[in-house]
Specification:
The complex is a heterotrimer, with two copies of chain A (189 residues) and one copy of chain B (260 residues). Chain A has 189 residues and is of the alpha+beta class. Helices cover 52% and strands 13% of the residues of chain A. In chain A, helix 2 crosses helix 3 and helix 5 crosses helix 7. Chain A is globular and about 55 Å long. Chain B has 260 residues and is mostly helical. Chain B has a three-stranded antiparallel beta sheet with strand order 1-3-2. The chains are: A alpha+beta (189), B mainly alpha (260). Chains in contact: A-B, A-C, B-C. At the A-B interface, helix 1, strand 3, helix 5, helix 6 and helix 9 of A face helix 1, helix 3, helix 4 and helix 7 of B.
Chain lengths: 189, 260, 189
């Protein structure tokens, strides 16, 4: 499809659908391959970044969704209804972060990390559509496995699970150094 | 030694332990187990929870701490590679994993605050598009699933549910369920009094099938004596008590508050 | 408000509202008078007319609405028709089996059996027309009852629903007995 037309079609679809649309489906409509479609979407995103534009594109795994620029929030709340907010307690956030970083994960494994039972938290997160059942573990009793959803990516502004804030290497090192310097102090006592 | 801070709510035993470690400014890899255990026990003594599920989680950790404390006093265990094992190692690992999880949850919270600033749009599909429903290809959807397979899945699901019931603990549950319903017992005794007018206390007790039932029946009788609905006579010490109904029995329900 | 910023705010508002928004309200948010606001909207409309844009502005009375360019409708239909792949996941199959063998059943009862929230699975199965609402339970809150559909019978080659529950009663009894005998064994130890 001619490039300008393709962009117009992509914009029309993303605007109308409101929801996220898989890149594969977009590619099928404009009759281009996936790479070309991604490239067009990137060009559009660059256009949207201009100062006189109010919308932007957000990537969620293999899908794209149109949304407003976050810096315009203060003007939007004057007129639009605030988007659905989740009240996430510490318990829910802790449970969610374990699931996010260790998915797919069973209830028992979550409980091991937190040291407390997690039935209630898991059910709440399922209700919020932030996590979902992703299968069963190939182990005795075939326990359920949980993982995060597209709603999770959207709610936390994460493009894909790989895009989660990196902490492992750096953070662990930091914790360790902290620990070591404290060990030396301890020895004096 | 009392904990000077006001009691906070902790997410669980690991959370409390991390708090104590932070507060004492000690190293997670070298926890002064004696002190921390004391503080930990102090804390759970002050905990004002009656929720046994919550309490037991904290108690399990207390037991772990005491266990570590004991092992610290004994000669060090040596592992297969000939290295001395620190009894605290496992706990340290758990604490680190939990600390990570807390850290990650803060990260997520920050991200959520930013992400909440994006507004989305509801679909506004033209009618002809909206009305279009992709036909479900049932052959593809059902695939090689059959009723027998579905039944098999059902059996598995039900079986899992049964398995989840701990066979020993579920019997504890049963005993609990058999606990006597005070209201029911009151109604029962009232009816008994009304139909018998004068009767032997011993006979009434003999009809009760468990110790708990006997106790509750006895309580109901005591309450009825107190409110003057029945009178009692006893000829000699330890001889049978004869209970006689007063006239207005059953006219208004007994007011008993819960017995537990 | 600075012109570019004002345009961005207008675009964001019109996008997220979807519906028509009165020009007065728009003017209030960007803190400009009505004439200026109309002028900005006209400039935006001109931008949208470019070949690579998929949206347009329509003015009705004193309100304005963002919508898809009508010449792009055919592509909207096309995206609606790009086949989504339907799959019965483990979760869906388990939920379906519970509904099939215990119908009519409420959401809560399904959750009790599975131990997790089932909203998603139930919604998907409704979408597939494999289950349907069959009434309400005569209990507090009058919860919805679900049962299988004719489509279900057709797909699974069952003549009538009566073929199903019979099995379950027997089976459940069996499991109970099994469980009880296991309890007794446990107590002997």
């Amino acid at each position: 499809m001619e490039k300008k037309k393709a962009k117009a079609v992509l914009e029309a679809i993303l605007f109308t659908m409101g929801d996220s649309v898989e890149i594969d489906r977009l590619a099928a409509v404009i009759e281009e391959d996936k790479d070309k479609t991604v490239q067009l979407l990137e060009e559009m995103a660059a256009d949207y970044r201009k100062a006189d534009r109010g919308i932007s594109l957000t990537t969620l795994d293999n899908a794209v969704q149109m949304c407003t620029k976050s810096e315009l929030y203060e003007y939007l709340i004057k007129i639009a209804k605030t988007p659905k907010k989740f009240v996430l307690t510490d318990t829910l956030l802790e449970t969610l972060s374990i699931i996010a970083y260790k998915q797919p994960i069973t209830r028992l494994e979550i409980e091991k990390v937190r040291g407390v039972s997690c039935d209630h938290a898991v059910n709440r997160l399922l209700e919020f559509d932030l996590i979902a059942e992703v299968g069963r573990m190939d182990a005795p009793g075939r326990p359920l496995l949980f993982g995060t959803t597209e709603q999770f990516l959207r709610s936390f502004g994460v493009k894909s699970i790989e895009d989660l804030p990196e902490l492992s290497a750096v953070q662990i090192e930091e914790f360790k150094q902290q620990a070591e310097s404290e060990v030396e102090m301890q020895l004096d006592i | 030694m009392a904990i000077p801070v006001k009691l906070e709510v902790f997410e669980g035993p690991l959370d409390l332990l991390l708090h104590l470690i932070d507060k004492n400014k000690v190293d997670i890899y070298d926890i002064p187990i004696v002190e921390i255990t004391e503080q930990y026990l102090d804390y759970i003594r002050q905990m004002e929870t009656e929720d046994m599920n919550v309490m037991s989680e904290f108690l399990v950790m207390a037991a772990t701490l005491i266990d570590i404390k004991c092992r610290m006093l004994l000669p060090k265990e040596v592992n297969e590679e000939g290295e001395e094992e620190d009894p605290r190692a496992e706990l340290v690992e758990k604490l680190l994993a939990y600390k990570m999880c807390k850290y990650m949850s803060y990260e997520l919270r920050d991200r959520m605050v930013d992400a909440e600033k994006n507004f989305y749009k509801k679909p506004t599909l033209p009618a002809e598009v909206e009305q279009y429903r992709q036909p479900v290809d049932y052959e593809e959807l059902i695939g090689d699933m059959t009723l027998n397979k579905l039944h098999e899945i059902f059996k598995q699901t039900i079986k899992r549910q049964e398995d989840k019931i701990d066979p020993v603990r579920s019997t504890f549950g049963k005993i609990e369920k058999d606990e006597i319903d005070l209201d029911l017992k009151t109604t029962y005794v009232e009816a008994y009094v009304r139909s018998h007018k004068t009767f032997s206390f011993r006979k009434l007790l003999e009809k009760q099938s468990s110790k708990m039932e006997i106790i509750v029946t006895f309580l109901v009788i005591l309450e009825m004596i107190k409110t003057g609905r029945i009178g009692i006579e006893q000829e000699d010490t330890f001889s049978d008590i004869i209970i006689t109904a007063r006239e207005d029995v059953g006219s208004e329900p007994l007011q008993l508050t819960s017995v537990s």
